[in-house]
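Researcher: Next sequence.
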Amino acid sequence: MANVELAKSVSRYLDNKKKCSPPLREEFIQRILLIPDDIEVGIPLVGNLSGCYKIPFDYKRVSYRIVYEVFENMERAVVVYCGPRGNAYDRVKRKLRRR
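Model: Next structure:
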């Protein structure tokens, strides 16, 4: 069983009712709760984002992404992005570069 943490920006996004409606928030939470049981539930990313996984889904005809980074021999995951697919990967690259 892996530990899963949310980045501050992810927590803020999920708490913002204007950007993330309660039903959409539930969709995100249901998928995030899959990670502790199977840390490789997502699709592995490649290139600059290797070590990260994505969980794609559609809600009301909009594509969304959950992107998480895996650490410490697959024992810990940090959700670094939740939101629309639009520029998700550019945002993740910027966040990972800041570390």
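Model: The longest helix spans residues 22-32. The first strand starts at residue 3 and ends at 6.
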